[in-house]
Specification:
Layout lengths: L1 H10 L7 E10 L8 E10 L8 E7 L7 H5 L9 E4 L5 E9 L12 E7 L8 E10 L3 E3 L6 E6 L2 E12 L8 H12 L2
Parallel strand pairs: 1-10
Antiparallel strand pairs: 1-2, 2-7, 3-6, 3-9, 4-5, 4-7, 5-6, 8-10, 9-10
């Protein structure tokens, strides 16, 4: 349902071509004092126009989904900055993360839970780029459900939706595949 809304919204967004995609890898945290898992998300975008990336969102769950902001606040964390990307003129752009349950008011129809990646002032991202972003969780990774988790790229007054692959923390509220969470929960009982 959330994906259908996203596709319907993106169809009316703009005539320019745009692409954003991401992949999340998970690894055990080498810091014994930190959360158990490190999630590293690599994002690429190409706005195919002169307009640079304004910000992007990781869409976690729709407004009618099972997850709440409280479900995420206690299980996701990140350093500041949350990540970096290449910028215009060869500089490095630093980003801060903002977890929201009201969607992204700057993009029509984007509601629900999301993690927004906003550049700090100074170095600006270009109309194409690659970034690496890191967040942490004690929850073990499960495969991303590409029908639920996705990405949106905001540039000028335009936006486009893209896909996400890889792993994401296995939340009890379940914005990821049922089979992955159920199997992970059962497997965890026998460790």
């Amino acid at each position: 349902m959330f994906l259908l809304l996203a596709l319907a919204v993106s169809a009316g967004s703009a005539s320019a071509q745009c692409d954003i995609s991401g992949n999340i890898n998970a690894a055990r945290n080498s810091d014994p004092n930190g959360p158990a898992w490190v999630y590293t998300m690599t994002v690429t975008w190409d706005n195919d126009v002169k307009y640079a990336l304004s910000h992007f969102d990781l869409l976690i769950d729709g407004v009618s989904g099972a997850c709440s902001l409280a479900d995420l606040v206690g299980v996701l964390s990140w350093d500041d900055p949350i990540g970096t990307s290449d910028g215009e003129g060869g500089c490095t752009v630093s980003y801060y993360g903002d977890l929201s349950d009201i969607g992204d008011p700057s993009i029509p129809g984007v509601t629900g839970l999301l993690l927004k990646f906003e550049p700090y002032p100074g170095c600006e991202p270009g109309n194409t780029g690659t970034g690496v972003f890191v967040f942490y969780s004690d929850l073990a990774p499960v495969p991303v459900d590409e029908d639920i988790l996705s990405m949106v790229d905001k540039y000028a007054l335009m936006y486009c939706f893209g896909h996400l692959s890889g792993m994401f923390p296995g939340l009890d509220c379940n914005p990821v595949a049922d089979e992955a969470v159920s199997f992970g929960a059962v497997k965890g009982l026998y460790r």
